[in-house]
Design a protein that fits this description.
The structure is a homodimer of 256-residue chains. Chain A is of the alpha/beta class and 256 residues long. Helices cover 38% and strands 20% of the residues of chain A.
Chain lengths: 256, 256
């Protein structure tokens, strides 16, 4: 049974303000809960309802979660009321948002950094985070104006990747300073940029992705060493932003 | 002012059954309406409300649409009630679904065909359609069990690409027969497939993309000449399906 203050704590995490105040975020469902407990992210509280124990996989997860973190048993109906998804699969975990600073992430000549310059859509954030994770990026740098990576929709779309890859809230100035100190390059994704296929970079390389409608901000565009594009000419403008970013990461991961 | 039968006609197109019975689909908003009238798709009826004429671009579109197709003037409120988006921007067009048969699409040694094997999510359909369009695919073949490409969400996610690229409803048997007659190859996207980077194909090449959860069906998997993957090893499993498809299309478009 949940107390009123416990359910208020969970509900508050559905909003950015609540997450910023508490430094906590929500994970729902079996797959993400498994990813969370296998990641460096610290779980603070689990809510478990009977339906989790319907399957061997769920029972195993329940046992492991109870061993790691305080857990409250709630009814399926209570959990459903707190959920942001259609089905919680019987588990919600409150995790501690991993706050990583730019200085804490090691960079070398093969490092790829993904920079989000006011990317707004949680689904696009998630898609980009999955690609960054798959292509072994060192970190995701979220510049001001970017969607909150710990928004439940963004966490879901990232399918566990945001639990594995460092996500740093930073500014263009701080990023440039760190990048320059390591002899790195800032690239900006832009349909009118040069074909990334023709280039070879000495890393670290940071790839900036702009807002879905407006593209890169003036400040970021001005700071870029080069604007790069998917090598398909004008047709690249018609690619989904997540797809264009994925192809650029693929190509950069080959050339680093 | 809309008659009751006119609004019933529009509403029916929000459901698959209604689209199949009438052979019509809906397009909402300025950008898609512009794409539609620039495409081979035949508009059958336009609904225009005063807010379309708020901008020079909207007024220009209104003039062009009225010259092409019967148009009914409706109020902004009437149009909002019929819309599936938050804002129609003052225009909804009923278009005739372009029914193309496999035989009508010319194929040569450089042709790329995208095969959807029960892809379910309208957003994924749209992302894939945009990539297929950007990489110059000859057609999209939708096998049974695939989301309706003319679903309003799928049309929106495709951002005009479904109006430009031929979309064919077909079966595996018909596709194989056409492909074999042209000496073509059927590839299946699968995280355990061989790296597509290492291969050179004599076209036409068809690339089959499976269901988001279950992957390729047994029948399609069995019919494939080769299973292919994005060359990043196991990490490819963590890519969003639209991103993986986009990278594969990029690589295939280079090797054809």
């Amino acid at each position: 049974m949940l107390s009123r203050s416990q359910s208020a704590r969970v509900r508050a995490l559905q909003r950015r303000k609540g997450r910023e105040e508490s430094g906590e975020f929500l994970v729902e469902g079996i797959r993400l809960a498994e990813d969370l407990i296998a990641s460096p992210v610290v779980p603070r509280l689990a809510l478990i309802s009977p339906s989790l124990e319907d399957t061997p996989r769920g029972r195993d997860l329940a046992t492991r979660v109870r061993a790691l973190t305080p857990a409250i048993d709630v009814t399926d109906a209570e959990l459903a009321q707190l959920a942001t998804t259609e089905t919680t699969q019987g588990i919600v975990i409150i995790g501690s948002i991993p706050r990583v600073s730019l200085e804490e992430v090691a960079l070398d000549g093969r490092s790829l950094i993904i920079v989000l310059d006011a990317v707004q859509d949680p689904g696009n954030f998630g898609t980009v985070a999955r690609s960054a994770d798959a292509f072994g990026a060192a970190l995701i740098a979220a510049l001001p104006g970017t969607v909150d990576p710990w928004n439940p929709k963004a966490v879901r779309a990232a399918a566990g990747s945001s639990l594995r890859i460092p996500i740093v809230d930073t500014t263009l100035e701080a990023l440039l300073s760190r990048l320059r100190a390591r002899g790195g390059t800032l690239l900006g994704a832009d349909a009118r940029g040069v074909s990334v296929e023709q280039e070879v970079y000495d890393g670290p390389v940071a790839l900036a992705l702009g807002n879905e409608g407006a593209g890169l901000s003036e400040a970021v565009r001005g700071a870029c060493d080069q604007l790069v594009s998917v090598p398909i000419g004008g047709a690249a403008e018609s690619l989904n932003v997540g797809v264009a970013a994925g192809i650029l990461m693929y190509l950069l991961s080959r050339s680093l």
